[in-house]
Amino acid sequence: MDKAYSRAANISTFLKRLMNITRMCKQWVVARIKQKGDSKCIPWKSLRDLIVVHSDARKRVDIFALSIYGLVIFPKIVGHVDDAVSDLFDRLEKRVMPVLTILAKTFRSLSA
Q1: 10 Å Cβ neighbour count for 91?
Q2: Could you tell me the residue ranges of all domains in the chain?
Q3: How far out from the chain centre does Cα 30 lie?
Q4: Residues 3, 18: Cα–Cα separation, whole Å
Q5: Which DSSP string corresponds to 11-36?
Q6: What is the pLDDT of residue 31?
Q7: What percent of the chain has pLDDT over 70?
Q8: Is the whole model's pTM more than 0.90, yes or no?
């Protein structure tokens, strides 16, 4: 396996994690989840639009951080944030630090 961090996609947990992170209703999240190849993901544009209009400042920061993880640190699908990133972000909120994962991914990217 050539990935530093991977997790099997499960649409129900991805849905629940996105609902928890964004504090949006199930219908909003379901309407934006896309299937790209073998991954479930949410478009960056949907998250960007939500950052601009979300009423809770803390949630805006959380959504922005999720976007950075998905687009910069663990890009898999251009312009989308996939399930593995939401799992990683969910673990961060539970105080599980992925430092080794981030270092391994950065090292692999720099080596390539």
Answers
A1: 15
A2: 11-111
A3: 15
A4: 23
A5: HHHHHHHHHHHH---HHHHHHH-EEE
A6: 92
A7: 82
A8: no
